[in-house]
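Question: Hello, beginner here. Any chance you could explain the protein record under this note? Any guidance would be welcome.
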Amino acid sequence: MALTIKLGVRDWDYITPLALGDIKPEGFTLEIDRVGTLVDDLATSDIYDAAEISFSRYALGRARGENDLWVLPHFLMRGFRQRCIITRHDSPLTSLSQLAGKRIGLTGWQDSGNTWTRALLSLEGVGIDDANWYVGRLTAAHPIVDRLGGFGREGRIEICPDERPMMELLQEGWLDAVFTPFMPNGFFEPGSGFRQLQPDFRQAEVDYFNRVGYVPGMHMLALKPALVEQHPWLPAALSEVIERSYQVWMDKRIKYADTTPWLLDDLRRTVVDLPRSWNDNGYAANEKMIDDFANELFVQKLTARRLIASDLFPHYASK
C-alpha cells in the first residue's frame, strides 16, 4: 500500500513548488494542508501525520519528560526579532536599553519568537524584572485566549487591562512597546502612527548575527513517532523534499524578482551580509542556536531545568 503523509504547514512561499507538484517526494505521497495557525497537538491529531510545530512548546514538553513527537532539526521558520519590536511613531525610544522600566506588550509569553526577543533585551541589560510585561491580543480582530500559559506573575507579567488590544494601548501611550511576529494591518501605511523601535533595525540584525552566528529558529518539522518506527527513512526523505522545494523557489525568486521593486536588492544584500549557510538545517549547523535557546528557556524560567541541544534532538546528536 502506498504511503501517504498529510502535512500541516504554514503558507510559506517556498512550499509552492511542492504544493503545485513541481517537486515530488520519492517513496511516499505528500498531501499539504496550508494552515493559518500551527497544529495544536500533532501527537494526538487524527488529521495530520507531520506538521510545523513551535520550538518553545516542543522544548517545554521535552523539559517535562514528554517524548511523543519525532522532531527534526529542520527549521521551517526563522527570523530576526529586532524588527518585531514596535512603538509609536512619536516615541522617544530608539534603543533596546531604553525599555528598562517600561510597559511592554507581548502576543504570548511562551512563544518562541518572544522568548528570542526577550533574549535581545537581556543582551542590552534589560532582564524580565527590569520591565513590566503585559500579554494580550494584538488587535480587536484577534481572539481572547490564554496567552500567559501559566507563567503570569502579579505585578510583573500580567494580562492586558480588560483584555484590551495592545495596539490600542500602544496608540494611547499606555504601552511603550509591543512585541509581535506579524505587523498589524496598515502598519506600513503613511500616517499609521507606528514604527519599528530601532530606526535601523536591519543593521541591528546584521550586528546580532555577527555576534551570535545564526538567525533564530522558531518553528520545526515534526512527525508522529509511530510512522518513523515503521519507516525509518521517512524523516530524512520529508526534510529533503522540502529542502528541494525551497531551493527551486529561491532560484525562481532571483528571476522573478519584480513582485516588489527592491526584492532583487534584498536578495543581493542577504548574500553580502550573511553566509550561504545561514538557513542550513541539520543538527550540526544549528547546535549553537538550539543550545542558546534552551539556555534562554531556563534563564527566563520557562523550564525548571537547563536543557542542552542533545536533550532536544537525541536522535541526531549522536550522529
Summary: The mean pLDDT is 96. The CA atoms of residues 136 and 162 lie 10 Å apart. Residues 82-212 form a domain with the D-Maltodextrin-Binding Protein; domain 2 fold (CATH 3.40.190.10). The first strand starts at residue 4 and ends at 9.
